[in-house]
Structures are given as C-alpha cells and as structure tokens.
Recover the amino acids of this structure.
C-alpha cells in the first residue's frame, strides 16, 4: 500500500458518544423528538391567533408583502418601514433605519399562497366578498366579529404564518441543541439538552413566537446556531465547503437581524473557551499572531468606516429627485483583495481565514443595508413613544438604562408579569441615588468581572456570560438608542447565555444531592416537572393574550396601567368592539370605557396623536360632535397630514351635510344651520360647506349671511355655478329693480346641496 501523503490525509473527528447522565436517552434521536413534542405542546395554542401589536406595519399593511413574490425586490432594497412611512405621509424617523429583510421575504412568499395583489399591493374594495355575490355571507366574516371589512382580508391565512413561526422556532432550538451537543458540550449532553429545552419553554419567548412579525428573532436564532456550528466544524475539517457554509449562514443571520454582528466577538471567545485556539494574554500582544489580527481587523475597520462616511455624506447632501450614491460598494471588494487575499492567505491559519471571511460578509451586508436605509433620519424624532428618554436628563437616562438591565435580568429568572409594551411612563426615570439602579450597577459590574475571569479560566460560564452581555449591549440602549425602553422579545438572544448558566447551575446543584443516581434523578425530574408546568401555564396564557390587539391590550392595560401606548390601544380596541356583534347591547358602555382609557393616555402624553384621533372617533360614535371636533382638531394641529384623520373628516363632513339637508327638508332650518356650521369648522378649505350653509341661511331668509357664505365659497372656488346663481338671486331679492318679464324665469333659490 502506498504511503498516505499530507495532501490526501483525512481530518480526524472526535467521536460523538452518548454522554447523558440524568436524561434516560439511549440514542441521539430521542432528544430531538422531545424538543419537537414540547415545542408543539407549548406553542400550538397560538396557531389560531390573528395579528397583534406591530404585525400590521410589517405584514398586512405592507404593500411589498401584499404583492407576494413580486414585492421581494423592494423588500430587499428598502427600509422595513418604508411602506408604513409612505402610507402615513411621513419620512423615515429612526436613526440607522430598520433592515431585516429575510423574515419579510418569508411573509411575501406566504402571501403568494394566501392571495397576493401584485399590481399595487392594496386590498381591493370589498375584498372579503370572495364569491363575488355582493352579499355579506357569514363565512366571509373570517374574524367572526359581525363586521365585514378589510380586517377579514388581513386575517386570512394568519394560521399559516403562526404555524411557520412555531415550526421554525422548533427548528431553531434543534439547531441550537445540535451546536451545543456536537461542540461546546460534547462531553455533557445533559447540559446541552437541558439548556435547549429551557430555552424552548421559557415564557419570555412567547412574544417572539405568538407575534408573527417577530419571526426575525427566530430566523436569527436558526442562522446564528448554524454559523456557530459551521465555524466550529471548519476549525476541525478545514474544508473550503465548510468555510463557505459558515460565511453564508453568517450573512443570513445578519439579514435576519443585525444583532448577529456580535458573532465576530463571540466566535473567538467560544474558540478560546472550548479549546479551538490558544491565547496567552501575557505573550499574545508581542506575537506575530497579534500583528496579523491587527492587520485583518484594521483593513476591515477602515473599509467599514469609509463606507459609512460615503453614505452619510450622500444622505446629508442629496438633492430632491437625485439618485443616492452606491460607490461605497467598492470597499467590500477592496477588503476582499487586501484583508482576505493578501493578508489572511499569508497567515495560513484556519482561524484567521474564517474571521477574515466573516469580516467580508459583514462589509457585504453593510453594503446591502446602506442601499436600503438612511443613516440619518429625515426628521428629528420628537415623539416620546419612539424616543423614550426625550424628557430625561443625562443622569436619568443612564440611571434608567442601568435599571432596565435589572428588569431584563429579573425576567430571565421570574417571567411574571409579562407585557407587550414598556414604553413611555411604564418605567419611571431613575437617578443614581435609586436603590434598584445601584443594585443593577453592582450586579452587572460583578457579572462582567466574573465573566472575564471565567473566560480566561476557560470555564463555560464565562462563555454564557459573554453571550448574555454581547446581545444585551444591542438592546440596552447602551451602544445605540433602539427607539424603546425595553421589550421582552428583545431579550430572545441574551437568554441563550442565561439558559446555559441556568442549566449548569441546576445540574451542579442536583449532582451535589447526597444519595444514589436514582435519588438525584428523582429530584432532577421533580424540579424539571415543576418548571415545565409553570412555564407551560405562563406560555399558554400569553399565547391566548396574543390572539389579536383586543385580547392583548385589554389584558396588558391591567399589567401596565400607566403605559401610554397600552392605554391608547386598549381605548381604541373598546371603540372597535362597540361595532361588533357581541357588543350591540353594550355599545355605549364599550365606547365610554374606551374614552376613559384614551383620556388617561392624553393626560400622560398631551401630544399623543392616536389618542386624540380615537377620542374623536369615540365621541363621534356617541354623537358628541363638539367633542369629536375638539379632539380631531387637536390631532390635526399635531399631525396635519395624518391619513386616518382625512378619512374621519370625509365621513364626518358628509354626515353633517346629510343631517343638515334632512333637517332643512323638514323645515328645521335653525337646526340645519347648526349642523352645517360644523362643516366649515371641520374643513375651512372645502367650498361645499360654505355653499350649503349659505343655502340654509337663504331658505331662512337671512340673505345677508347667505351672501357672506356664498362669497366665501367663491373665494375658494371662483367658478362654483350654484354659488354664483345664489348670489344673483340675493341681488334680485334685496335690491329694487325693474320687473322681470314672465318669459324670463328668475334663477331658482338654491338650498342645501345633498
């Protein structure tokens, strides 16, 4: 037999053996079956949910999604909120934009099966009339509320989207377990499996699964797990194919959610802790390896900085109608030549090769992101619901941010109560004299110091703390403002670190119980059974809460009674409920309850536009016209181009004209004038209101006032024929003139035009 050469020598893999100690698994298939079953049991209660919170902005009110697969190009090249901003007659408001296209592409693909509208991405009139008989059939009321409207079209296919969320979440947990089992906990499968199922069951994740829009978190979990898996695999087999898979999955992780950027820090830490690379801090900074790392990272950093400078300069100086520059796309390929081609290939170490390609992927992703978003928002964000620290001093800002870290930490250990919102007025501002802020500061500094020491000792808890803190930096308003105080779904990635530490503590604690293995197993499964029951109850409860906006906000308003956003949404949902079949007998009670919540919301936040809009709507439905006018005018003052306000004005305006016409027909001219005067308060630029009010005064023989309003009508519309004719009649009536021959009929006095 010929001697095996170095070029043909196959890599040697460590054998994967069954190392379960507490779990009674006899093979490697059983853990995956348990994960699938638990995932279905915990989350199938959300299968028949509809949409809630911000699902609409990203899904059924996003014309790129409604177009189906024809909208994918726009999804990949535009800000995630571009469609929403356009519908609201607004400009982009979030610094750095939002670019997480992968999950949105999946929504567009689903829409293709549900029913796409590729022409304009808008639901057609009476879209719920699926059989085209122009009759509201019972089966067409998909959400079963007794109201036939666009909502029935929007909730169509919602179960498919929830099913995809459930299945992809289960896949994500399976891949996370696969990474744990095959690499970092190869000799402790109990720890790998326990950490995975705690992550699967934790109620803090109920929002990420039940809120369809949060699929970006789930996709991010999938591709972060795969990036870790193939990065470790490449360090073993050193195959180009594995390197490509690692880089490709890293790109998909970034396209799922930008939080994956922390992997360029976590992968080296994981390699060090779990013996893939050696690092001696005493000698490393004088070594060639450090210089090589500095060259690779330096070339990456310079290219990224230049890309951001070119983009920012373009955003600031671009003229209306001018096409934005894309010259920053040059720099990823400059790095590919310099950082990958010239520097890392000379090092000839798998770690350097892997990281240089991950840096290239980051630059490539940055180029994609810069095409879609603006670095600087179109207008400063003065809305406190999007800028929660707007009214806080510098000390209050940082003290409150430190306190929020304690809230996150406590929710990991005790996930109750849970809420969909923690925005303005939910969390009171703190100072550094607040006991809970000081406690949080001491706790997190202590964890950070412990994490560094444990990493240097190559202890797995060091890696767990690093994962927790790395993702926490992305959501804690520390490195950047995220437009929210905190959010349960934002903790999704950090809990990977938490479950590793929690599972390790449980196993260590059980192992210290005196007695036989059987005794320890009984204690272990007793604890696990209690956890499973409690976690399951809380997850099911939140799944039901997340059915739709009505169930969500009517529950959460009890949990966070001072949240402006929750108060506003709870009030709006009560106003919506007043029109549904189950609230016919309690219509007025529902409206009054909604108005109560909305009044509290605008008391807390006097510039809350949606609060005034819905207060106006509730007042209008209660026939309190003066209140409706007052609230809608407040909204108009704050947000003149609000599209919802325009629609309300059209409905109210036509209703007032109709009321005035009917009262005039019955001879109630004073009442008709009272109704019609509201039209010119509502819309001072609509000539029809002035014309009809003039007609009412004319019929009431108040010719001087009729003349005033008809002249006002002609100022707005000089060629208004009825107003001209009416003025000619007033002249004929009030000014002595020669008798008009009978053969020439006088213009007929004009009343109210219907």
């Amino acid at each position: 037999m010929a001697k095996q050469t170095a070029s043909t020598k196959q890599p040697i893999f460590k054998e994967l053996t069954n190392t379960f100690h507490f779990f009674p698994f006899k093979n490697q298939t059983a853990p995956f079956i348990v994960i699938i079953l638990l995932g279905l049991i915990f989350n199938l209660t959300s299968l028949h949910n509809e949409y809630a919170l911000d699902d609409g902005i990203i899904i059924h009110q996003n014309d790129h999604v409604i177009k189906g697969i024809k909208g994918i190009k726009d999804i990949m090249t535009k800000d995630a909120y571009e469609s929403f901003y356009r519908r609201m007659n607004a400009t982009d408001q979030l610094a750095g934009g939002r670019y997480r296209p992968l999950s949105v592409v999946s929504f567009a693909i689903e829409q293709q099966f549900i029913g796409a509208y590729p022409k304009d991405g808008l639901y057609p009139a009476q879209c719920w009339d699926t059989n085209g008989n122009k009759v509201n059939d019972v089966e067409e009321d998909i959400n079963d509320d007794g109201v036939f409207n666009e909502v029935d079209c929007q909730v169509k296919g919602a179960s498919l989207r929830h099913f995809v969320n459930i299945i992809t979440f289960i896949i994500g947990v399976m891949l996370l377990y696969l990474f744990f089992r095959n690499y970092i906990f190869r000799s402790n499968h109990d720890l790998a499996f326990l950490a995975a199922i705690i992550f699967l069951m934790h109620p803090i994740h109920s929002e990420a699964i039940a809120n369809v829009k949060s699929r970006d978190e789930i996709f991010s979990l999938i591709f972060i797990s795969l990036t870790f898996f193939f990065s470790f695999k490449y360090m073993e087999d050193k195959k180009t194919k594995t390197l490509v898979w690692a880089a490709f999955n890293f790109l998909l992780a970034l396209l799922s959610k930008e939080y994956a950027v922390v992997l360029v820090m976590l992968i080296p830490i994981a390699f060090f802790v779990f013996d893939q690379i050696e690092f001696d801090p005493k000698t490393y900074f004088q070594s060639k390896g450090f210089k090589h790392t500095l060259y690779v990272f330096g070339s990456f950093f310079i290219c990224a900085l230049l890309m951001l400078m070119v983009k920012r300069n373009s955003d600031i100086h671009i003229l209306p109608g001018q096409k934005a520059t894309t010259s920053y796309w040059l720099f990823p390929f400059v790095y590919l030549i310099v950082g990958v081609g010239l520097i890392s290939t000379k090092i000839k170490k798998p770690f350097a090769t892997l990281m240089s390609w991950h840096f290239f992927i980051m630059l490539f992703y940055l180029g994609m992101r810069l095409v879609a978003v603006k670095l600087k928002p179109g207008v400063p964000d003065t809305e406190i619901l999007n800028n929660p620290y707007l009214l806080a001093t510098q000390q209050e800002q940082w003290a409150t941010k430190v306190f929020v870290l304690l809230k996150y930490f406590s929710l990991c250990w005790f996930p109750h109560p849970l809420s969909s919102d923690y925005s303005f007025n939910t969390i009171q501002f703190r100072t550094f004299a607040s006991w809970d802020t000081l406690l949080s500061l001491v706790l997190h500094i202590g964890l950070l110091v412990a994490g560094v020491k444990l990493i240097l000792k190559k202890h797995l808890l060091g890696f767990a703390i690093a994962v927790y803190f790395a993702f926490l930096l992305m959501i804690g308003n520390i490195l950047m403002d995220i437009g929210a105080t905190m959010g349960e779904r934002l903790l999704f990635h950090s809990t990977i670190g938490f479950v590793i530490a929690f599972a390790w503590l449980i196993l260590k604690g059980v192992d210290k119980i005196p007695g036989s293995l059987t005794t320890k197993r009984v204690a272990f499964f007793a604890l696990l059974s209690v956890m499973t029951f409690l976690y399951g109850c809380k997850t099911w409860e939140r799944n039901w809460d997340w059915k739709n906006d009505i169930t969500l906000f009517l529950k959460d308003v009890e949990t966070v009674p001072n949240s402006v956003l929750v108060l506003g949404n709870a009030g709006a949902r009560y106003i919506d409920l007043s029109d549904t079949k189950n609230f016919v007998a309690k219509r007025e009670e529902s409206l009054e309850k909604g108005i109560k919540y909305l009044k509290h919301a605008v008391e807390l936040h006097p510039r809350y536009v949606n609060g005034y809009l819905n207060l106006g709507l509730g007042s209008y439905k209660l026939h309190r016209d003066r209140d409706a006018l007052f609230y809608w005018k407040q909204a108009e003052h704050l947000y003149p181009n609000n599209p919802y306000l325009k629609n309300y004005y059209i409905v109210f305006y036509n209703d007032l004209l109709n009321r005035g016409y009917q009262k005039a027909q019955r001879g109630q001219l004073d009442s008709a004038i009272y109704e019609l005067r509201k039209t010119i308060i509502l819309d001072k630029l609509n000539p029809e209101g002035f014309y009809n009010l003039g007609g009412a005064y004319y019929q009431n023989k108040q010719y001087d006032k009729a003349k005033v309003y008809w002249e006002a009508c002609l100022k707005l519309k000089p060629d208004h024929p009825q107003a001209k004719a009416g003025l000619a009649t007033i002249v004929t009536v009030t000014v002595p003139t020669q008798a008009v021959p009978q053969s020439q009929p006088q213009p007929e006095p004009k009343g109210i035009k219907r």
